[in-house]
Amino acid sequence: MNPHDPHGEAVAASLKWQSTSAGNTAQKRNIDEIYACDVFDERKMHERLPKHVYKNMLEAIQNRKRISMPDAEVIATAMKDWAIERGATHYTHWFQPMTGLTAEKHDALITPDGQGSVVYRLAGSSLVQGEPDASSFPSGGLRATFEARGYTAWDPTSPAFIVRGTNYATLCIPTAFVSWNGEALDKKTPLLRSIDALDKQAMRILRIFGTDTGVNSVGSTLGSEQEYFLIDQNLYFARPDLMSCGRTLFGNTPPKHQQLDDHYFGSIPTRVNAFMATLEDELFRLGVPVQTRHNEVAPGQYEIAPLFESTNIACDHQAILMDTLKRVAGRYGFVALLHEKPFAGMNGSGKHNNWSMSTDTGVNLLDPQDETHTNNQFMTFLCAVIRAVHLHGDLIRAAISGASNDHRLGANEAPPAIISIFLGDMLTDLIEQIEKGSTSRTLKGGSLDLGARSLPDLKRDSGDRNRTSPFAFTGNKFELRAVGSTASVAWPNTIINTIVADSLDFVATEIESKLGKNPTDAKRDQVVLKVLQSIIKEHKAIVFNGDNYAQAWQDEAARRGLPNLRSTADALPALETSTAKKLFRKHKVLSTSELESRVEIFAEKYITEVSIEAQQMVSIARTLLLPAATKHQRALAETIVSSEQAGASCEGLRDSLIKFVDMVHAFQDAIASVESALEIPEQSALKQCVYCRETLFSATEVLRACGDALEREVDQALWPLPSYHDLLSLR
Ligand code: ADP
Ligand code: MG
Question: In which element (H, E) is residue 154 found?
Fold first, then answer.
């Protein structure tokens, strides 16, 4: 560590912290006990609700049915009693507005008793419906500022939970958030509607195959893996860019970062592991079951993956996870960065979105099973997904767009902006058979003999993986790898559910219309294969098993007519097409005005984020970096003058000074360019996005390059920002 480092004190404080606090937090844990703690789950309902209400509640959860007001009254009282016993003083309708974050407004769990005192109470009506106003959230024109009313509506399928801190505990009730006329102002409402749409169409397929017996509903399942960086809090507070934008706006990649792969899957640093253990405890307590933890590729980068659940709950849990991650990090002197690209020149963070469809009886509809070529139902679901992604890949791309994810997609980082599907050898062989009109074999992986007597034979999968594919089949689910690490997963899953529902609708209609009344099994299989054959012929262009990073794929994808939407500005218009409007209307997921409002909101968000970053850069450049550079310049000049007075020649230093002065000039020009680019012309929001991308963002890239060049020259003791080296090596 540089002894003149202006952040040396912060570093020393953190090192001291590591040696004391982390060791003391280890505690004995009883997972079962923790898990049972702070969630009003089935077990609590069973214990606390009268039998008939419990039965109705279960029925409502499993089959997504409404709960009657009398039942809600009973449930509210039981929930309130439980929450108060656990120390809660307040409750909140917890929702997910279009900011992509979560929102809460706390109300005390008390009400006047009419005799000058108060009683603890949560009315059934307060459980079911809230009116938080919340008029400052983005509505994309769905309501004017003066139209303040907004409602929250209880989602009984997602369990209530208690968030607690040192001296508070709040009962959180998951809700949907809509406007006065019922239009969705949040991420949950359309997601729930898309699950209903998927349910309706998937059930038609099960009926065709006669596998619907005992099945009440089909839903999608979701497991999302979250990547994040941990950096030391003290250093974070010395970086205004991290504080306001979540990423470094200046900074040079250090000589050694991830090249040796020595962090990836490495032994987890002690302080980090202690943090992870507390984080997992906390998440278990909130009902979020965590499965996996490991070091990721870049130094300071990690991953956490919960177990998969039904999509609605998994989306709520993902929001809880991001919140908890940030909250717990502080206790260990860390800040968790969820941004997609906190550090230039190193891996960014994403969120792998593992998606499948399952019956309420627990059958995974994307499980190919052993003799896949005889499993016509699986092939039908598979082909429907292939068709959906081919027809609406642009919507998936739009769903994962945003200023921060632009740093990954289309920016030479995993995965590319072209949406394609990886199927692997076995399924590719299978769809080739379908295309030819009959299926007769399932490729097997066989086993691997490792050569040493003590090592077991390994069962080999029937196909390898492909890390570069944005939408990959991984055994019994699809993995959308392009979701941003800051993103709410609700929106991309709303899109996947909707496009697959639409495709299942098409497939079911095709098959039903050709089947006639009371078909034999043989007739059905014949019809199914014919329908699937024509789907494969038409949509196989979306399947690509090769290297998605190669230039050759960009060219090939263009030949195949697959869109390559590199930035948010390119991607958002897909949501405005008549095809998109018709699709969302048809499946009752979003009305045209609801869809248009989203385009407006996403565009606004993009423009605002790019503008904030630009303003923040100008501020850092003018008030931190330029003064450091001028001090350095003066020191150089003074050295030259005094050395020459003393009779020493300073030609080399003089050259350096002249070069340095040029660099400072270039830096000043770049600041001025960003300032003038910040005057965004009045035009439509989508046009402003293009402007921000092409003019404003480009100007900031030049400014960054000039600033980074200065950092490489200026005396470290003068440089006002903690370096990448410090930020990334302190664990
Ligand atoms: P991989 O190594 O391919 O990523 P894992 O088995 O480690 O596969 O699973 C990764 C993620 O996928 C986990 O979060 C897991 O919960 C989730 N997952 C597993 N099965 C399903 C499924 N049927 N539906 C949705 N997500 C799933
Ligand atoms: Mg994975």
Answer: strand 150-154
| CA pair distance 321, 63, nearest whole angstrom | 26
Pocket of ligand 1 contains residue 257 by CB under 6 Å = no
The two tokens of residue 414 are: 């995993």
Rounded to 5 degrees, φ, ψ at 422 are -100, 130
Counting from 1 in the atom list of ligand 1, the atom nearest the Cα of 364 is 23
Rounded to 5 degrees, what angle do the CA atoms 722, 727, 728 make?
150
305 CA: nearest ligand 1 atom: 14
Strands (E), 338-419: 350-359
Q: Is 20 helix (H, G, I), strand (E, B) or coil?
A: helix
Ligand 1 near 307 CB (within 6 A):
yes
Pocket lining: 221 vs ligand 1, CB cutoff 6 Å: yes
Give the pLDDT of residue 414.
66
* Rounded Cα–Cα distance for residues 263 and 261 (Å): 6
- Res 570: pLDDT: 95
* Buried/exposed code over 334-353 (b: 16+ C-beta within 10 A; e: otherwise): bbbbbbbbbbbebbbbbbbb
Q: Which ligand is nearest to the CA of 357?
A: 1
DSSP 88-101: --EEEEEB-BTTSS
Spatial CB neighbours of 57, under 8 Å, sequence gap ≥ 6:
45, 49, 67, 71, 75, 156
Instruction: Report how far apart, in Å, the C-alpha atoms of 643 and of each of 479, 627, 640, 649, 715 are.
Output: 64, 24, 5, 7, 19
pLDDT of residue 23: 36
Q: From atom 13 of ligand 1, which residue's Cα is the shortest distance away? A: 223
Q: Token pair of 574, please?
A: 């897909």
Token pair for 676:
């003038």
Decide if 573 contacts 689 (C-beta within 8 A).
no
- C-alpha 322/C-alpha 326 separation (Å) is 6
Q: Are strands 471-473 and 478-484 parallel, antiparallel or unpaired?
A: antiparallel
Q: For residues 155 and 152, what is the distance between their CA atoms, to the nearest angstrom? A: 9
129: helix, strand or coil: strand
Q: Across-strand partners of 112?
A: 118
For a substitution probing ligand 1, which of 308, 315, 321, 474 has the most ligand atoms within 8 Å of its CB? 308
474 close to ligand 1 (CB < 6 Angstrom): yes
Going from the Cα of 577 to the center of ligand 1, the distance in angstroms, rounded, reads 33
Contact predicate 122/109, CB 8 Å: yes
- Average pLDDT, 10 consecutive residues per value, the chain (731 residues): 45 47 41 68 93 94 89 96 94 91 90 89 92 77 68 93 91 92 92 97 97 95 96 95 98 88 85 92 90 88 94 96 95 96 94 96 94 93 98 97 90 80 95 94 86 83 80 95 95 98 98 90 94 97 93 94 94 96 98 95 96 98 98 97 94 96 98 98 95 97 98 96 90 70
Tally the C-alpha atoms within 13 A of residue 270's C-alpha that lie toward its C-beta. 11
Nearest CA to ligand 1 atom 1: 474
- What is the C-alpha to C-alpha distance for residues 608 and 600, in angstroms, rounded to an integer? 12
223 lines ligand 1 (CB under 6 A): yes
Please state the φ and ψ torsions of residue 671, each to the nearest 5 degrees.
Answer: -60, -45
Residue 336 main-chain phi, psi, to 5 deg? -90, 125
Centre of ligand 2 from the C-alpha of residue 270, in Å: 25
Strand partners, 293: 304
> Helices 376-399 & 490-515, crossing angle to 10 degrees?
140
- Residue 423 Cα to ligand 2 middle (Å): 15
